[in-house]
Amino acid sequence: MRMDGDDICELNRAEIQLPFLNKYVLIGSYVEEFNKKIGDLNRVKQVPLLKEDIYKYSSMRNPFNHMSVMFNKKAILIAGNYLKKNGFEDYYLWLRMINNSLPMINIGKVLVHARVGNDMIGRRSGVQYSKDEFLFFYSLLKEKLINLPSFLKATLIRIPIRLLPKSFLNHIYIKMRN
Cα–Cα distance between 155 and 71 in angstroms, integer? Predict the structure, then answer.
């Protein structure tokens, strides 16, 4: 069960996710983002719930909220475990698991409250992050984890946005979450 040190999970998170491990090797959920206290931003990061939607979504965006996942360690090892990808290790792992047709699901409930302060937007912007993101998507294309249209769409949309001023990025991020 994953979770970052400054995140807060629902008390019944394990009770909700654990039964799904009988059928799925990776179970994620929605995440509520907060700054100083739960509910102060009123933002929920939703992800696709069903296999087909997860697969489709994954060609452009990470289909799991990493801090919300519970997984079967054997399945993670089958897919090659976490590998270095400059900030995209979890996304890369999920794509390899999808490529291996491993059963995964998201639960349509908030099970984790994630702190998004500490300059989250700043860490996901700028020239270096744009380069890393481009190289990540290019490696996915080379490994045939995504196709050429997905690569072009991902890079032509995402990379220029990463170069915008933080104030614009914050506005875009809020709009994408609603």
Answer: 29
